[in-house]
């Protein structure tokens, strides 16, 4: 196998010194007079030989290598264009390309969730100029170490760990979730159940906060509203209907498992939405555009996260922790309707 071309090869091909090649390729020619002819010969020779600069050497020379890291704590890169992360990753790629930055995927060690708190794997992200992080939870020790070393990083999703010192671009789930419940109340619903994940990630907590805030505002009885991920089956839904429940709200997480279980249970129970139960989702369930609720601005989430990270990398002066929340887009759908008065038995 032929070896990769080196700067010495470019110098020989262009008829200049290796020092001149280094200066031209690094762009570090301040205070040094080089003719455009010389510069052009060097660049032409480099292109003809297929020279690719060593990113580590470039980083040592200029403190930047124009590479942004993307670190995920679970399998986030999708094969399905309808996957939860797909639009976010499209936004990341689009904005990185627009800014002239390459992307590096850090997969950690051990594969899957085994690497979630792998300190060594997370610290390797420093090979890039900065890094975007995905994950429902924060491995605090290595992330705090990165923050302490002044390494630029941005989380995709709201974070409140480490005393609020983590820069992020997230979603205003509180306001969006409250709006969904407020709409149900306006349609006459008073007995509502909220199916939520049993996970205490900020995105789940925020959704619950919004649901309860709207319920309290409407003076609904809140003691039984929140139901943490039970076995969702036909029997549960029939019991709710018998108890007078007229509307169900479900959290839509990255897996979509909870909403899928709810719609399977509706079908198994022979119930329809909104005929028997009004159903709303806090997010857009896969392949169900008719479901009322809201859409998460995932593509813009990815784009804004890249811009925030790039601003950290290129900014001067003291770094300020920036935390951005994006608004969700209401989705009227057709799965909720006015309260239907049920005949007395």
TrEMBL record:
Residues 5-62 form the HTH lacI-type domain. It comes from the Bacteria. Keywords: DNA-binding, Repressor, Transcription, Transcription regulation. Transmembrane segments: none annotated. The keyword Repressor applies. Coiled coil: none annotated. One of its GO terms (molecular function) is transcription cis-regulatory region binding. This is LacI family transcriptional regulator. It comes from Kribbella qitaiheensis.
